[in-house]
Amino acid sequence: xxxxxxRVLITGASSGVGAATARAMAGTGAxxxxxxxxxxxxxxxxxxxxxxxxxxxxxxDARGLARRAGPVDILVNNAGEGWAGPFTRMPPDRxxxxxxxxxTAPIELTRLLLPGMIEANRGHIVFVTSxxxxxxxxxxxxxSATKAGLAAFAEALRDELRESRGIGLSVVLPGVVDTxxxxxxxxxxxxxxxxxxxxxxxxxxxxxxxxxxxPESFVPGxxxxxxxxxxxxxxxxxxxxxxxx
Length: 245
Fold this sequence. Notes:
Blueprint: E1 7-10, H1 16-25, E2 31-36, H2 39-49, E3 52-55, H3 62-69, E4 74-77, H4 92-120, E5 123-128, H5 131-135, H6 141-160, E6 167-174, H7 181-185, H8 199-212, E7 216-219, H9 224-232, H10 234-244
Parallel strand pairs: 1-2, 1-4, 2-3, 4-5, 5-6, 6-7
Helix pairs in contact: 1-2, 1-8, 3-4, 4-6, 9-10
């Protein structure tokens, strides 16, 4: 799908991958609607990219966001949160919050905006998930589950839309990305490998997925290998995980 003339809603656009995606789309002819909770950061990204800033919390007012965004051609479900630590020590409110931000909210926003795309016979939806949802990551059990659930929802929805003309759907699975995500989840990224990739790389993957209607994109691409190994040979995958973490 071409970006020129398309109205694009990006959630979580005030920083990280969302802000990088807005910058990657600036100058393409797309009309950007940028959603986020941090007004100051969001308005700065909007001023830089020529987008419209909509301060909104998708967990409590997805309907209001959809109304203010109006009919959109492209929806990038990017907003997300993390939490790291032993599952048994996870505060109940953080568990509820992760499920709401990472899973319930993008599903609800899609439900609100998809009918307009179907009516127009034009649209594309992107779900930014995570490699954690494809392989499961220890000490990030709930985060992994929400991202796996979002990927399963996207796959089921793709099957449901197979006869709808002009509607594309992409899942983008980043690995470790150099953003404030790790500070906000409460635990820094302290592994020497794999090295974090810049958010601009993920943003390019999102733009390419839209333009080429790619069902699934891993960023970086080699992450496809452990994801496929887990599905094809789970025993070997678990042995490798025990050795390399």
